[in-house]
Amino acid sequence: MPRSFFMRGPTPIRRTLQYLESGTIALRDQVRIVNVYYRNRDLAHKGAREFVFWNFPQLQYQNPGVQLLTFVNTMPTPYIEAFLESGKKVVIDVFDHSRQQVSDRVKGTLGKTEQILSAEAQARRTVANPANFGKGFPRHCICEIPGQIPCPRVICFPDHMKRKHYEDPFSPDSPMKAKEE
Amino acid sequence: MAAVKKLMVIGKVVRKLAPKISLVEVQTNRLDSYLNMYFGHYDQYRADDGPHLTKVDDYVLIRSKAKPERVDLIYEVTEVVIRDGVLRDPLTGKRVVGDKNRIDFLEDMQGINRLLPDQGKCQESLKYSENDVPDGLPQAVRDKS
Fold it and tell me: Which chain A residues have a beta carbon less than 8 Å from that of B35?
């Protein structure tokens, strides 16, 4: 694929997985909707404009369950409005803020703290037993582990290990007779 | 395992299906996995207005009902976020008027109109004709050709 196929639009670095995954703001579970009001032209709205341009894809990627909306040229001053699960509203005035200031305020007001994030990571680690295998785990089948029975797709099992095999105790090749002897 | 959350979104009233039933269009962002880019995706919901008198082009907050009485009305309008034509600044509560060119508080706009009644007429002086453009500019060549 030619490079021009993917390098479209202004600053296409925003459309890389590495950039999306490097977002730092994880919104709290109570936050359901975030609206950003700003204008296209005023200098005082520059921080809000740049926050939407650079950080909105990251914010949406880190919080897929939250609805993010922008309202352009509707209000004279820039602000961010968040709707919580309980019905309450949080309004953050970002007049004449830089992009970094807006990002820090959103993270400090609506984002999860380091303590919450570390506690959630710890809970995930305890639930995920590394010994598990199957769908959704790192190892799909026990045949991948050395020392265990090999995969029947690769090696044909003997008859007595197949499901619909019925032991015939009177057959001369039966392993049951071999054990008795 | 996290519990599935009930619907809570903001949408725009697109149509009125009945005096107290509105069709709300909700925009959510969906990631295109090939371009790694977010595009707007639009869904429509039938919502019960309840005590709110919503009109077309209002932005409303809809939530799923705790006990829906009708099968076709599962969602309800809990709040009108922005009424069409009646924008209010959330911090001061004052009305706001304007568009992309100029937007300001209604009181300030009315004060300007009162103090400068000829403000509208002065806009004519900003317009220029082809005679005003100095020679050498590409626009002059275009206008006079």
Answer: 6, 8, 15
Backbone phi, psi, residue B123, to 5°: -65, -25
Please indicate whether, in this complex, the C-beta atoms of A69 and B10 are within 8 angstroms of each other.
yes
* CATH class held by domain A3-116: alpha beta
pLDDT tens track for B99-119? 777 788 888 888 888 887 776
pLDDT digits (tens, 9 = 90+) for A39-68: 988 899 999 999 999 999 999 999 999 999
Give the CATH fold of the B8-82 domain: OB fold (Dihydrolipoamide Acetyltransferase, E2P) (2.40.50)
The residue extents of the domains of chain B are 8-82, 87-127
**Helix-strand-coil split of chain A, %, nearest 5:** 40, 15, 45
> 7-26 in A: which are within 8 Å (CB) of B?
8-9, 15-17, 20
Beta-carbon separation of A74 and B103 below 8 A: yes
B97 within 8 A of B87, measured Cβ to Cβ: yes
Show me where the domains of chain A are located.
Answer: 3-116, 130-181
The complex's ipTM? 0.76
Contact A83 B10 (CB under 8 A): yes
How many Cβ atoms from other residues are within 10 Å of residue B10's Cβ? 21
- Is A33 in contact with B10 (Cβ distance < 8 A)? yes
Q: Coil, strand or helix: which one is B93? A: coil
